Amino acid sequence: MSHLHPSAGEAPEAFLESLLADQSLLFPCAHEIHDLKSGRVAAVEILTRYTDEEGSQQAVGNLLRNLHCPAAVRARLDLACVEGAFSAVGRNSGRWDIAFINLEPATLAEPEFWGRLPGWLKTPGLNGTKVVMELTESCSALEMDDLHAHSRRLRDFGVRIAVDDLGSGVASLTHMARLAPDYIKADQSLVHLAHRRPYQAALLNALAHFARRMCVGFIAEGIETAEELQAVLDADVPWAQGFVYGEPVPLP
Fold it and tell me: DSSP class of residue 37?
């Protein structure tokens, strides 16, 4: 197998360029989001992975947040991942009612994103699948006013908004209030060992009630154990995601 993971001394920019030069090295994966009341799969998050030289799956998202790499190169890679995600949803027509697609907030400032979005939304096979752009607000390089304007523009295209990693940063609640997302995802730090930490469990419960009052979808992510899953259930969280249900599955 070719070298697919940056080695010591290899510039991150060069590695990202190698992925862009051979996009067959990138592959989409589906990670299910479960409705805890019905037990069914309510939605899916489309993630992009690559395989390193040891044969392990690695998240492209970690590369996209490498600030040592030029922003323009990271934006090109993110656009390639988003396009691959739309294509994967289209190829799996009818499997999911809702598909979450990851997007780096900085990519919203790229004119190419807005030029390509209408075509992506016409991808054959989407067939009414509700598309949710999932923004990782904790790593946003955009000013809040710019992010708010971009979110309104996304909604003009009929795209819903999700804020990821809620609870991972000081500005999380401010971002959520300003963006008024359609979905919020509680960061793994709120879920980890929640069955042993009553403050975390109480906060999850408070967020679940807030989301219900505001008619916002609420998802606890990063659930790894049966005990954490039970704590999320006890906190009245409606949707859940995590390795307790299995790892992301590569899509054909």
Answer: T
33: left (phi over 0), alpha (psi -120 to 50) or beta: beta
* Dihedral pair phi/psi, residue 151, rounded to 5°: -65, -40
Token pair for 35: 């409705």
- Which domains are seen in the chain, by residue range? 28-46+76-250 (3.20.20.450)
Quote the CA–CA distance of 219 and 238 in Å, as a whole number: 7
Is-above-0.85 flag for pTM? Answer: yes
Contacts of 164 (CB under 8 A, 6+ apart): 102, 134, 135, 136, 137, 138, 185, 187, 221
**Structure-derived torsion over alpha carbons of residues 204, 232, 129, 153, reported in degrees to the nearest 10:** 10
pLDDT of residue 9: 42
Task: Render pLDDT for 62-90 as a digit per residue (tens, 0 to 9).
Answer: 888 777 788 888 899 999 999 999 999 99
Distance CA(240)–CA(145), nearest Å, equals 30
